[in-house]
Amino acid sequence: MFKEERNSAQFNWSMIGDIEKGRPNLGNNMEVAVYRLMQFTMRDIMIKNLGVEAAEKIIYEAGELAGKEFCLKFVTKGNDLSDFLREVQEIMEKLNIGIVRIEHYDPQKQMITLTVAEDLDCSGLPPCGETICTYDEGFLSGLVSQHTGISFIARETDCWCNGDRVCRFEVKPAL
């Protein structure tokens, strides 16, 4: 299941396991620092071994898969895109992923500008002059793509690590 060679993603929710059974005392919560430790050490090793471009591609694709699976598991089906985005806001805040705000939505062009405050990836990090939320870009792309059935891309335009106090993303249909 985890070490077999394959050409396509094989994720399924059974890989998450029974958290309630496996962690009867510690439960479902952990510190954000531990999440960041895992993410940033994996990113560091991928960059070291594969280079920045390949590492960023893998991180985006992993986020994209996660967004699709998240949509299938947590988000109501059949909503129009506006209602879908409101539901995503509620779910992400409830799960302590981040506080999502829709800044602009153009239903004709299906273009979305949204911000995420207090996000898991970078809120509170020192400025480094880079946008670093590549996983979040993929996540948002996968989430909206799964809901609409249309391929979307997401790009971070502002980031806490660039001195902003929220991360801003442009989400639009892929050409």
TrEMBL record:
<dbReference type="Pfam" id="PF02830">
    <property type="entry name" value="V4R"/>
</dbReference>
<protein>
    <submittedName>
        <fullName>4-vinyl reductase 4VR</fullName>
    </submittedName>
</protein>
<feature type="domain" description="4-vinyl reductase 4VR">
    <location>
        <begin position="111"/>
        <end position="173"/>
    </location>
</feature>
<dbReference type="InterPro" id="IPR004096">
    <property type="entry name" value="V4R"/>
</dbReference>
<dbReference type="InterPro" id="IPR024096">
    <property type="entry name" value="NO_sig/Golgi_transp_ligand-bd"/>
</dbReference>
